[in-house]
Amino acid sequence: MSTATSTATAATATDADGDAILTVRGVRRAFGGIVAVDVERLDIRRGAITAIIGPNGAGKTTLFNLLTGFDRPDAGAWALEGRALEGLPPHRIARLGMVRTFQLTRSLGRLTVLENMAVAAQTQPGERLERALLRWSWRAEERRVAERARELLDRFGIAHMAREQAGTLSGGQRKLLEMARALMTEPRIVMLDEPTAGVNPALTQSLLDHMRALNEQGMTIVFVEHDMDVVMGISDRVVVLAEGRVLTEGRPEEVVADERVIEAYLGRARAPAETPAEDGDA
Amino acid sequence: MEFDVIFGNAARAGLGPTAAIFALAAVGLNLHFGYGGLLNFGQVGFMMLGAYGAAVVVATWGGSLWLGIPFGLALCVVFALALGAPTLRLRSDYFAITTIAAAEILRLLIRSSPATDVTGGPFGLQTIANSFYALNFLPDGRHGLGTFSFSSNQLWVMLVAWVLVLLCSALVLALIRSPWGRVLRAIREDEDAVRSIGKNVVAYKLQALVIGGVIGGLAGVVEALQQSGVGSENFEPQVTFFAWAALILGGMATTAGPVVGAILFWFLREGVESFIRELSTQSWLPDLLADFLDGSEGAISVTFMGVGLIALMALRPQGILGRGRDLHLGT
Fold first, then answer.
1. For the residues B233-238, what does the mean pLDDT come to?
2. Which tens digits make up the pLDDT trace of A14-36?
3. Is the pLDDT of residue A277 over 90?
4. Residue B58 has pLDDT above 60, yes or no
5. How far apart are CA B198 and CA B80, in angstroms?
6. In this model, does residue B34 exceed pLDDT 70?
7. What residues of chain B lie within 8 A of the CB of A106, using their CB?
């Protein structure tokens, strides 16, 4: 039955609105009896910064995992620029231009910062085993890759660490490196899972500035965030998830004024006699 | 106490064909685990297929050794694919358990009675390397000094074996320094991060498993050449762990580590064994102790290697050539 649903919705997922880069239709994922994600319809606008917010356990990271191929939904369809993505493994989705970062940074510790960047290039033919020993066939590209990597490292202010092993970077520098590495793949859309989690206020500001600058160059950005101040300051669109569903979607100022959003975050206003257990249902 | 005899024995073991065989096996493991993070506990399975592939073609089917060797290595490729395709998607501990089981299953199959017509079963296969020794251009007689001496044919196997060690080490070094190797090292650090930047992680791991496995297969071929035959008792699980010991001793993820480790492993093992053997003949030793030592040199030597490895883990966990700071940078 689930396959029937997924093929039925597949047609609509590729049939996108004019300005949507990513379209999601009926994506559903349950863990046992708990429905973690049940997104009926979601369109991500091209060239916009979209924040995905919601209380803990709302399914934000699960949705990211599903859309980027790191987890498989029980049903549903989604498409990047009209190209259906359901069933594709994560590396194929990344190659099609949707690249993600992780909530806990994933730097490649024993590789140098420059290697962390270079490995993300999509254009290096020497990554194919049959070309690996033919040094002449990939040297020129290797120089171009290194040049592009240095430009990006420069932009993120960590070029002076290029020769150091990534494991020696500070937590904040790793965040920057991970963002730079994602860009090294030349994506069409970047999905940042809590880019400011565990980061000091100064660096948070710097990360947001980078996101804004990228966006001004035309990059579509989707990010998961807890901090409402951050969301208000930077996003064009806000999607609110609660219990796996899209509660509401709109401009940041619309969303914060929405009663349902306040309810989802703080619980419904009730008589003081209500027990805490019932608050959890809100 | 004849220290020249002890040293001669130790040096002969450290430079002999057995050390070269384990160096090859460890070079393969180094690509698997040192660079790719693949916990292969079944390297002996690859050695067995290399050795038996070559031996079966010659002894059972009456073919040429020069067809047998590539046949054995081809079996290693098949084994790697069969082993890796279903398990490399899983977490690394599942893969590790599968490798050790697969190698042991393979050994039991080879020595089973239904397989006797092909593999010789418990009797193994003999006289398979005549065409290899026919190529020996070294002069006859013994070469060397005292106990540190080799026959012409032994020297010929050693020469070929150590040349293979050099070639395989160079191959691994070249691969690791290529963009392909960079992806492999990245996978060792964090698979999901590498997936997220568009690399087919399973394909890279499978390729590394095949290449390191074929190098292990070469180790088996040399073993078959050295003995001019094969027997399943030479491919018990501890062979894998001796190769691991050599790799850990020399230093993971270094080019010379597995080679230095294998030389040192066999040098020390034979040195200790020879020392105990000498010791048990000393007249000043109480009879009881001398009787105990006599005949248990091998066991004491292996115990010593175990204690030595524990000490190494405590004092220099990165091995002799490894980089200490790398231990703290893993993710």
1. 94
2. 444 558 999 999 999 999 989 99
3. no
4. yes
5. 24
6. yes
7. 190, 192-193, 196, 331
Distance CA A60, CA A242 (A): 9
Q: What does the alpha-carbon distance between residue A102 and residue B124 come to, in Å, rounded to a whole number?
A: 54
Task: List the single residue in A with minimal CA-CA distance to B327.
Answer: A110
Alpha carbons B320 and B327: distance in angstroms, whole number: 13
Tokens standing for A184? 């090294």
CATH number, domain B3-122+152-323, options 3.30.390, 1.10.3470, 1.10.287, 3.40.50: 1.10.3470
Burial zone of A145 (CB within 10 Å; 0-12 exposed, 13-18 middle, 19+ buried): buried
* Residue B290, Cβ density class (10 Å: 0-12 exposed, 13-18 middle, ≥19 buried): middle
B197–A99 C-beta distance less than 8 A? yes
Residue given tokens 């893969």 in the structure block: B95
Residue A118 has pLDDT above 70, yes or no: yes
A41 in contact with B at a CB cutoff of 8 Å? no
Q: What is the pLDDT of residue B297?
A: 85
Reported confidence tier of residue B108, pLDDT bands at 50, 70, 90? very high
User: Domain-by-domain residue ranges, chain B?
Assistant: 3-122+152-323
Angle at Cα A22 formed by Cα A19 and Cα A24, nearest 5°? 120
**Residue A146 CB contacts under 8 Å (≥ 6 apart), including other chains:** A114, A118
How far apart (Å, rounded) are the C-alpha atoms in residues A264 and A278? 13
Considering only CB atoms, B189 lies closest to which of A111, A122, A182, namely A111
Give dist(CA B178, CA B254) in Å, integer: 15
Query: By the CB < 8 Å criterion, does A4 face chain B?
Result: no
User: Is residue A111 within 8 Å of B182, Cβ to Cβ?
Assistant: yes
Cβ proximity of A105 and B208 under 8 Å = no
ipTM of the complex in this document = 0.89
CA distance linking residue A29 with residue B192, whole number of Å: 20
Evaluate if residue A253 carries a pLDDT over 50: yes
Q: Residue B193 and residue A99: Cβ atoms within 8 Å? A: no
Alpha carbon distances (Å) from A2 to A7, A73, B137, B313: 9, 10, 71, 53
